[in-house]
Amino acid sequence: MVRQDWRTWPTYQASALGLRNFWYPVTWSSEVGARPVGVQLLGERIVLCRDRGRAYALHDRCPHRGVPLSLGRTHFPGTVTCPYHGWTYRLDTGLMCAAITDGPDSPITGKVGVRTYPVAERLGLVWIFIGDDHAEVPPVEQDIPEELLAHRIAIGGRIQPGRRGNWRYAAENGFDEGHAKFLHRNALWAIFRRMPAWTETRIVRTTDGRWISRKWEAVHWEADFRGLGHWPPARSWPRFLQAAAARSKTPPRTDPRIAALDLPGMVSVRVPYILRVAYAHYIHYEWAVPEDAEHHRYVQLLVSFTPELLGRLWFRIRYLAYIRWVFHGQFTGQDAWMVDVMDIPPERLYRPDASVIEWRRLVEEQHRSPRH
Ligand code: FES
Ligand code: FE2
Fold this sequence. Notes:
By secondary structure, the chain is α+β, with helices and mostly antiparallel strands. It has helices at 10-13, 146-150, 167-175, 180-183, 239-247, 256-259, 309-341, 354-366, and strands at 22-28, 37-41, 44-51, 54-59, 79-81, 87-90, 96-99, 116-117, 119-122, 125-130, 154-164, 198-205, 212-220, 223-225, 229-231, 267-270, 274-278, 283-292, 295-304. Helix 3 packs across helix 7. Residues 173, 179-180, 184, 335 line the site of fe (ii) ion (FE2).
């Protein structure tokens, strides 16, 4: 019997607004200054603000009349003031320390406050921990792939708020075995990468037990479909392009730091949805940080592990010159299109969706929500 709903994965099913008690990358550190910025994460409105070098995160809602504090500004060091009646909050505790329009002795001062959120900065990004009340806050390093902290790296990346579709659609699209060879077959990024017609895949754990990975057991570059014909169709390319594509079939030597990760497959995933796609010279990481049930903040990083300064510089140039547009633009834009229009459950899964099922199982096993 094929199940048509998600009851098999109750935590997953209940997590339309995301998995709580994880650290999420939210924005570039350089985007957070003295002027407050508002973001939405896991259904909560949050205001980010920097004071004397340190970033803070508070609930973005003035308890007086519900105005977003992100529309306000800092008038006194270490505080943010609501634009409406001037209630002023301490950035570190969230406590209201002055109601300006009611004078210095306003009796409500110190009696109200807003929630604060743990904030950390790593890799040039601001990370926020969205936890349940009284949840233990793990060190941010626990939610960042180890290799990113262990090496000197160069990063190119893109952060897109308001991407349409539930975060789980984005996650399932990321780890889905079936679609890349079809949906992306004509993407610019894939033009020199030969796509198989179909594959036989096994999902395996990485040695540290935190990631699952797609391992190709058999690759079928071409196939005949009875009564229909051959797939893929021959490319009607000019000869020089055909030649270039043929040359690119020799796999390049993998960066030793990437090889040392000893990944069973090119694509792996872990909770709360960190996707890792390892190429020979760099690794793509992505997060789909839930905003609300219909939107997520799409965070893409491309990371070079080359130890040489010149190599890192060259990587940055290539990233800005074309990778950002071709890979983190057109290619993942095709994914965005699908993530926006898909609509599940109900669903009817097929063999390659073992990848999707194993991802849901991983969430059931490794989520940090209280058991229900
Ligand atoms: Fe914020 Fe009145 S609504 S001070
Ligand atoms: Fe894709």
